[in-house]
Amino acid sequence: MLTKTQFELYNAFYESTHKNESLDKKTEVLVGLSAAVAMNCSPCTRYYLKLAKQEEISKGEISEVIAKVMAVAAGQKRLQVLEDSSIDLDSFE
Description:
It is built from 4 helices and no strands. It is mainly α and about 90 residues long. Helix 2 (about 25-40) runs antiparallel to helix 3 and helix 2 packs across helix 4. It is extended, with a radius of gyration of 18 Å.
């Protein structure tokens, strides 16, 4: 539970992330969507999909964002199992 002050500070910070100096709106939405999917935040994913529709972002663009998140997640798991593991998987047949 956040205090009132913490909640207000968080909201101010979050709102500041929508005032881009370098990203255009479409890029901001796609980055937000990818972060929401990666963090497994359903409310955030729904929020960014709604914004994506408003910005007329295509189904193909959304699919590519989701595929990229999936690829990064799969790569992280691969590294976790194959490189961070003390088990020599080459000894398995």
